[in-house]
UniProtKB/TrEMBL annotation:
Record keyword Magnesium present: yes
A GO term, aspect molecular function: magnesium ion binding
Biological source species: Adhaeribacter aerolatus
UniProt-listed GO biological process terms: phosphate-containing compound metabolic process
Protein name (Swiss-Prot/TrEMBL): inorganic diphosphatase
Assigned keywords, A-Z: Hydrolase, Magnesium, Metal-binding
Length: 183
């Protein structure tokens, strides 16, 4: 049975904003993930003391990445949201990455977006507008987060909004293909 999240498009046709669903709020040590079968958010893990998510982390519904999950989004906004909240957003770039789990390497990019109603981050239009030190810290977070789980996360590039939009379009096509195939 299809869930509301599965039926939600990744792009709001009326506003042109991307529909980001928050899984884990900024500052949380708890990692939540949406369980589409239960239609609930499940506690997936807890980060060690001193580690927390640097910004809200979520996904774009109606997409699939190479890892089989919806495309991941790190969302910059003024205050943390809650798991399950839909936040309209603007894509500003992507941190392209390869993730190795149990000897299997797949692309697992991290889209970067800004909340459409953010006051603090409105000036950010593209990844080049983000402070390079902050980008390095974000990449370090994902590397260390994966290392804690025994996985390798290797950044292979930083790209702007146009590349992020192309990745989402491809992820939407993959989602549609998977739906037609019953997966």
């Amino acid at each position: 049975m299809a869930t509301v999240v599965q039926n939600l498009p990744f792009l709001d046709a009326e506003s042109g904003a991307y529909n980001v669903i928050i899984e884990t709020p900024k500052g949380s040590r708890n990692k939540y993930t949406y369980d589409e079968h239960l239609q609930l958010y499940r506690l997936k893990g807890v980060l060690p003391a001193g580690a927390s998510f640097p910004f809200d982390f979520g996904f774009l519904p109606g997409t699939h990445g190479e890892d089989g999950d919806p495309l991941d989004v790190l969302l910059l906004m003024d205050e943390p949201a809650y798991p399950g909240v839909l936040v309209p957003a603007r894509l500003i770039g992507v941190i392209a990455a390869e993730q190795t789990e149990h000897g299997n390497t797949v692309r697992n990019d991290r889209l970067l977006a800004v909340s459409s109603i953010s006051r603090t981050h409105q000036s950010l239009q593209d990844i080049k507008d983000i402070d390079k030190h902050l980008l390095t810290e974000i990449e370090h977070f994902f590397k260390s987060y994966n290392a804690i789980k025994g996985f390798d996360f290797e950044v292979v590039g930083r790209f702007g909004a146009k590349r992020a939009q192309a990745l989402v379009a491809a992820g939407g096509k993959l989602f549609q293909k998977m739906q037609k195939e019953g997966g």
